[in-house]
Amino acid sequence: MTDSEKHDQDFPSKFTVYVVICWILAAFGGFMFGYDIGISGGVTAMDDFLIKFFPTVHERKLHAKENNYCKYNDQYLQLFTSSLYLAALVSSFGASKACTKFGRKPTILVASVFFLFGAAVSSSAQNIWMLIIGRILLGFGVGFGNEAIPLFLSEIAPVERRGAVNILFQFFVTVGIFFANLVNYGTSKMHPYGWRVSLGLAGVPAVFLFIGSIVITETPTSLIERGNETAGQSTLRKIRGVDNVNSEFEQIKAASEIARQVRHPYKKLMKRSSMPPLIIGILLQVFQQLTGINAIMFYAPVLFQTVGFKNDASLLSAVITGIVNVLSTLVSIFYVDKVGRRVLLLQACVQMLISQTAIGGILLAFLTTTGSLTKLQAAFVVVLVCMFVMSFAWSWGPLGWLIPSETFPQETRTAGFAFAVSSNMLFTFLIAQAFLSMLCHMRAFIFFFFAGWILKMGLFVYFLLPETKNVPIDLMVERVWKQHPVWKRFMD
Predict the structure, then answer these.
(1) First to last CA, the chain
(2) What's the pTM?
(3) Best exposed site among 9, 199, 279, 291 by fewest CB in 10 Å?
(4) Radius of gyration of the chain from Cα atoms?
């Protein structure tokens, strides 16, 4: 009998319409996150936006002989993109406490409210500080949503489908990025307020998430750990679609008993036995950003302008990469619970390494500071960017969120995941704030910089990342950490 068959017998489940609706509605938080990632790059490439908020950048852009790599180098312009992630970093720890004390469902509701206010303020901004306040409000929404939603999806999913269900979050992130690129392509022709429409449409997925936060159920784990065992067992029956949930209920109940004895989860998290999932969770999030993906996603239109595309062509190229991103994430949904996490991550490292090195080589050889690539060379760069995005989308993108959400024991789950989320937001902020300056100073070598990190990531996965496919969340310690040749030394 295979592990998967054994788990099916231990924790029986079947598809129900209600649980699928819960998965999709919760995953709209990913759509919101993706829209925020995708919209900023297109908006910062719009002349109307630059004239109103960044006139010096616009003047620099108009000079035909201006340095290709430096024309967008402006700290305030970068702050427009990065301020969201700094706010998300700060709010993720408050979101962790909200998840533990009030549950996953109310935390998702709070996220949707922040998103709604953030969209309203940023789209109606009259000055740069109002613009940044709107982005900060959106950042609070990202902090609360990215803490609660992956946990919600991991806890509500049956073990044999946990990977695919959790990746719905990342799939909706990619759909959000694609939708943002389409919006930017359309609104770039709506003068002079196209950028307001782009920022304001963030309210649409926020409304869906708000409605979803009311419709979805609380997770059985959250109900049981807060002492509501009757409701927890009833909810477990409802989402599994079967009456026989005793084994899973007892397992969650036992984990909750242990969790209640831990009065200071952050202190517990610092103990030696908690180090393996903490180190893995943080490094996965840090490495996710050091692939260079957000440098490409934030600034895709700017990047394509740098290599010689005109404004409309650069936005259209960003739309193409968005389509690739969405379709490639589907690969992960179908295969993550079949081939496992490690295979997808290692394959992607090879493909990303080749792509980043080749992009850097082309720019180094052919893009001068004041010239441009030929159409064929520029088209080849787009193909390489698509290859890079493709491999990221079925690996480090979704699995960077999935693995931390499934590896922490219940007593440190929300605290540990808060560290993972905050690490992601910290490095997202650093990359967003520094990328245009790095592009200016490092030029083509920036792609070799990211390629070097991708090589380190492959070694990390090969030697230190255990496989977590088909392992129940609350049995990770026994079946994963205590069996790993390195991490078993940390276990009590």
Answers:
(1) 30
(2) 0.81
(3) 9
(4) 22
